[in-house]
Amino acid sequence: MASESSSSSSSSPASPASSSSFLTEPSPPHSPSLDATTSSNIDIPVLISGAGPTGLMAGLLLAKMGIRSRIIERDMAPTPDSRAVGTHARTIEILKLTDKAVYEEVGSQSWRSESMRFYFGNSLVADIKPKPSNDSEFHVPWMLAQTETVKILTDAYEKTGMGKVERGWELLDTKVVEQEQEQVEHQQAEDGTTQDVKTTTRTTSWVETTMRRAIEGTNKRKGESVVLGTVDMAGEDEDKDYEVKVVRSEYLIASDGGRSTVRHRLNIPFPGRTRDYNFILFDGHVETDLSTSHITFINGDNRHSVGMFPIRDNRVRMMLDDGTLTQEQFNAREPKTPTKEYFEKLLEETLGTLKLKVLSYNWLTYYRVNERRAAEFTHKRRIFLAGDSAHCHSPAGGQGMNTGLQDSYNLAWKIALVLNGTAPQSLLDSYNEERIPIADEIIKFSAKTLDNGVYQGWLSSNMKRMMLSIVPFLVRYLPNGRSRPPFSMLGLRYHENSVNKAHKSQHYPVTGPASIGQRAPDDILVPFTAPADTSVPRSEYLAELEEDLTDQPIPTRLYELLAFPGVFHILVFAADRLAKEKDFDCCLVKDVDHYQRIWSSRWPGLRGVLESNATSEAMMCKKMKSTPQFMVHVISSATPSSFESDPNETTTTALADREAGFGKVYIDCEGGRLHERYGFAGVSTKKAGGGIVVLRPDTHIGFRVSNVESAAWVEVDEYFGSILVN
Ligand SMILES: Cc1cc2nc3c(=O)[nH]c(=O)nc-3n(C[C@H](O)[C@H](O)[C@H](O)COP(=O)(O)OP(=O)(O)OC[C@H]3O[C@@H](n4cnc5c(N)ncnc54)[C@H](O)[C@@H]3O)c2cc1C
Asked: How does pLDDT run across 529-538, given as a tens digit for each residue?
């Protein structure tokens, strides 16, 4: 751990151009571990620049998987501006899967916005309530200012003891250092002597990052905008003393926001456009006749619109459409920030007869929309752009922070598995492959939402009014599971690639609900347990269990079983075969045990996993000392009463006594709703019914096979062999 070097520079700080003078010459790594990896001369496995939501989530996830990190943050304190105020269904799911305490804290501080209201002039045209669906536990956004989310994530990250947020440190420069390493091979000659054969073989690489800290005061440059702007590294503050450090890491996650220094230093293009729309953002307390517990959009008669987003205690965020301005007009505009009077006047004209009075505010600014996406999210498999540094778009639809958190959710397990020696470096390529199309989709969605929100002429305004007035009826009559609002992000999927592999026998349409790359659908399950009291007659016990299926509170959900960061989950959809086929139980037990044994010896898993996030009660499992890399869950669509009750057997199925994750059986609700969600509906007692689905650690479907016989297990084994280190 000798490579971290530190120095002080006085007065004139290191400009990026000269920052290389602070770099220590790389010393050769002592022992290369994995392909193209060095581990012994680094200071920290993962360095993260930027303690916004994206960087904190990455650090927290890595910590949960036993990987240490360091987060450097330029600002001395989190931004007080509300910024992201909506956390959507998919993000809530991943918070719960990552850290139960974070989920509970965000949940307890958040305001639930049960509906969205749309006004035209002073008439309420639509009140749209997203319909709850069994497919996800969450159906409405949770409203909480980003500042609070950042505080909760910071506390959770630091509580793991696996990393710290180092405030006041600014990343100045970074690069991937590559070094050819000579390897000496020993060969046995024919005469029995040993010869040294020199071969130049592997290239080792690591990341070298230069950072600095202003010894007094902040690193922020004068006149920097918190929302927009370009990186002006030349605009240094004079007369400041800085401490400069060079840190070596295996990986760098650049979550340093829209103006990302890393992106600039690596010359990664950030193409896109700046829209002509000009908005005023307001964050403060108001007094109003309008409900401050709903998201409200008002299309004013003055052809301006305003969106109002509840935060808490009558605090709201407003986004007021201030018309269009070219960049030149915007630059020439004076004053540079809106006055309270200007904002109130435009707001009053937009609201017409609707009443709203500003009591106080802590943020009032002009806002221009940028829609941009970095050309690459990965640099030499060592540096990863995540969050706003990789993509930015308008706040319409509230997707920005959510997408950043989901970038981290996609990336962290891949880094953890590679660092752990479980997966090859090539796994990291899938981050770029998977997140770029998602970023494009989000940018498109948010642009469309923005265009729909602002006045686009008389005809389109009336069309919008008409459409909105019928949406509440449409939502009411949508079948369960089909009412996911697009902003919930539950429908985002990854394409087939080296990690998401469609099986040759896959009959399902590529766009189906449970096709490869999709988020794993969720639903209610009931643990199938052996009776605690063995004197209870079997038939009585099964009847009681059957009652549990309809009893409240809900016994458990599939997602309760998946709350182990970094773990692959193998879902075995057994249809009704455990109840109907006498020999099926023992075949399945054999396969489950055989493959779990093989896999755990081949890929021992993430050592140092901190704890499960699952509710052990719901899982009915004992507390595990360490988490295996693979967990198997058997799901039966047979009702408990259809299991034959043999009074001589201690359990109805040998798998009922298992601990969660080791083949334990769960009963699918309503005779197979989860089977249906995963495309195994209607499969009955005929041999070869059911199927196996492999969920990646980020709960997306990686592989599926329509069969649960031994041959199917062989294919699952081949799948793991193809994506993990052999
Ligand atoms: C007005 C507004 C409203 C929004 N509303 C929503 C919403 O409702 N929902 C939603 O999901 N999103 C919303 N967003 C977007 C959301 O705020 C961003 O997408 C989110 O902050 C991105 O998180 P991040 O961690 O990637 O970047 P940031 O939050 O920008 O964090 C980057 C961090 O890196 C630090 N940093 C920068 N440079 C360096 C450096 N060189 N060295 C060290 N540290 C550095 C910064 O100080 C900062 O703390 C909104 C944004 C705005 C501006």
From this structure: 765 555 666 5
